[in-house]
Write a structure and sequence with these properties.
Helix content is 31%, strand content 25%. The protein is an alpha/beta fold. Strands 6-7-8-3-9-10 form a six-stranded mixed beta sheet, with helices on both faces.
């Protein structure tokens, strides 16, 4: 299946089967993930929770194809990531996966508009700036398109990062501690943007978070501890999307 094609609707959007990750450390190999198996359906909202060092961010990096597992199998949008080279992984991310990091990862020498346009330009679209401008307007930043990251507040920078993640209408949206560097009021604006995008696009939303109130907004919570999934909790009823 080409890396820009979508999976059959009956298949899980994300499937991890016995995934492990071991990295070198000063005192020897360190097991980060240990036999993680899980499935995420299209359109589902999932919170991954657990203490610092439990493997949450590493799990997201593996799902995004930014880290290769030491063992096991990872399928995203019907694609076995182990069978894809780095160029194919990049195409898969551009076509299907939006990623929001805690620290924004904006290019400081580019305006908000230019930052959001980058993945569209890489995909070969000639209307990249028009698409980027529309994405920024959807997150309430139509009047900030010409501003550089250093001229924006933390919340505005995170919304630029969200616009960039959403610019290709991804089927999977990954957010790693998206409110971790923000105050409570600004964090609510960012979370509203993420859940609005999930509702509008029908995308699956995976949130890495330590905030219990944020995790409660999701359909399902996965508890990680020492690199293992040790618990799962499903929402009893649809949640009100507000903190």
């Amino acid at each position: 299946m080409p890396a820009d094609s979508a999976p059959p609707p009956s298949d899980p959007l994300v499937l991890l089967d016995d995934v492990s990750l071991t990295l070198p450390g000063a005192a020897g190999p360190v097991e980060i993930l240990r036999g993680v198996s899980l499935a995420i359906a299209a359109g589902e909202t999932v919170a991954v929770v657990g203490p610092s060092g439990s493997g949450k961010s590493s799990l997201m990096m593996i799902v995004a194809g930014l880290e290769r597992p030491s063992g096991g199998r990872v399928l995203v949008a019907g694609h076995d990531l182990d069978r894809l080279d780095e160029n194919a992984l990049a195409r898969l991310r551009r076509s299907h996966v939006g990623i929001v990091f805690q620290s924004f990862h904006l290019l400081p020498t580019m305006t908000a508009l230019e930052n959001v346009a980058i993945p569209v330009e890489l995909a070969g679209r000639g209307d990249a700036f028009a698409i980027a401008a529309a994405a920024l307007a959807r997150v309430g930043l139509a009047d900030r398109v010409g501003h550089y990251p250093g001229q924006l507040s933390g919340g505005e920078q995170q919304r630029v990062a969200i616009a960039r993640a959403l610019v290709a209408d991804p089927v999977l949206l990954l957010a790693d501690e998206p409110t971790g560097n923000l105050d409570a009021a600004t964090g609510r604006v960012v979370i509203d943007c993420l859940f609005e995008a999930h509702a509008r696009l029908g995308s699956a939303l995976v949130l890495i978070t330590h905030e219990a109130a944020l995790a409660e907004l999701c359909d399902r919570q996965l508890q990680l501890l020492d690199g293992r999934v040790v618990g799962e909790r499903r929402a009893a009823a649809p949640q009100l999307r507000a903190l």
